[in-house]
Description:
The complex is a heterodimer.
Chain A: H1 2-5, H2 17-27, H3 29-59, E1 62-63, E2 70-71, H4 77-81, H5 85-118, H6 122-137, H7 140-151, H8 156-163, H9 167-174, H10 188-212, H11 216-224, H12 229-258, H13 261-265, H14 273-281, H15 287-310
Antiparallel strand pairs in A: 1-2
Chain B: H1 8-31, H2 50-57, H3 62-91, H4 98-110, H5 113-126, H6 133-158, H7 161-169, H8 174-203, H9 206-211, H10 218-227, H11 232-257
Helix pairs in contact in B: 2-11, 3-6, 3-8, 3-10, 4-6, 6-8, 7-8, 8-11, 10-11
Amino acid sequence: MTGAQKSAPAILPSRGSADRLTTLFWRHPNVLLITLLVLPLGWLGIIYLGSLAALLIQSFYSIDHFSGMIVREFTLRTYLELFLPANMDIILRTVAMAAIVTLSSVVVAFPIAYFAARYARGKWKALFYLGVMLPLWSSYLVKVYAWKLILAREGIVTWASDMIGASAVLNAVLALPVIGGTSLSTSYIGTWMVFLYVWLPYMILPMQAALERVPNSMLEASADLGAGSWRTFRSVIFPLALPGIIAGSIFTFSLTLGDYIIPQIIGSSRLFIGQAVYSHQGTAGNIPLAAAFAVVPIVIMVIYLTIARRKGAFDAL
Amino acid sequence: MRSDRAPLMLKIAAAAGLLFLHVPILLIFLYAFTTDERTYQFPPPGLTGQWFEVAWNRADIWPPLYLSLKVASISTLLALTLGTLCAAAMARSKFFGRDQISLLVVLPIALPGIITGMSLRSAFSVFDIPFSTWTIVLGHATFCIVIVFNNSVARFRRLSGSIVEASMDLGANGFQTFRYVVLPNLGSALLAGGMLAFALSFDEVIVTTFTAGQQSTLPIWMLNELVRPRQRPVTNVVAIVVFAATFVPILLAYYLTRGGSETAGGGK
């Protein structure tokens, strides 16, 4: 064993550039940090932030309505166009829909989140987790398409209401002003249901995370002090779950504000912000107005996030 | 208040909620077999398996499928590289601007897709960049980075610092340590992140409509069929394919990262 006798020196000689780089990184950790970050930050900084900047710049341009060309000069005219009654309608309609979708998703999500956080154990816990995660991840378009099938005039809802003799109820609902329509798939009710369905998992997950942190002892204490289940819910569970609910509402609110596929496929023909953005940038070629419309959800979300932050929603994320 | 058993009402509400999340998808499968190609009549007047063959022979489906696969593969590779680099830097060290960087990574997926899409569209217009496969990839890779980042940063944090030190003590340089010690430990997290990123990219439609121009990915093809349908059950067949292409990766990713502190998918 001659090799063993030649014992290795305590400090190995450098074996090439890889070793030299290792030494450099070891002595100057910041060099390593910068080397690691330069590509991802370059990508996100240039492509993403650069694009956001381009969006802002475009929103301060305007379009020449005669030639259809973009006038590359600073102006506030495009933003003023947002205040035209027709455009204000679009903005208010979208915000109202986002608010209703958010509130209703809180109601539907709560039992699922509460059951999963408090009662589900072992196999059931995994089942609930996958049960929420799979719809969250499955194809967005497939989910929207599924609702087109369900809500269509000749679809399963009409069939089911005929079976149980409730078609009069369905017709009465469809006859309602504003929210009704010729069928569920061409009414606001339909749009609302699909939004609720598609964004529901985004509400369940943070809510469940918040509820899992509510200690059992607190519920027992509440019961010991004589509170019934409703009182316990109102005074203990709900306030403790609130940061999670707000965290979830950030998703449901923001996603509804920006969506344009759902109201295009299912709903009345009246526009939402997303559709306005899409149609202005498309055939109309009015990129400045489309950009200004896209800034609206950003502004609303910044206001929303500021309020949410004060309520401590970010601790629950 | 009994704490060990759930009240009946709660059980019913939770079960109803879960059913609400799952039943609609099943209908997609049923309608792929209907004999009625003009309406969404329920119950279907008859059942047939012919639409799978019809879909296979439709020439307009294949190019979008290839484009989607191509875009998703390139975007996933880019996101894997960029996301892992970023995670490696962010996992342990604390430095100035760290919070801002994590915000920047999350932003493309936290803001509605329409903003990401419209931003890219504005940039292409400002710089007169023509639409191509690469304009689609730019958008997809950007929002896929966060998926890979979330998966690998959690694994980096769990990775004990002492095994890296042991490797260095035994004479390995930084690259050898990465190749033989860090990478095998990251493996399943990267696989999970990569599959999720692939699923997300394969299925993405909102950003894509702004960055594709006249090109058609499979989701854009589907969207066009939803607006102007012809042979509706064929759309269902394609929907099943798209559904499987996103369903299988998420299930695999779940099993790959199960038991750890990170469970895949939480970051979408």
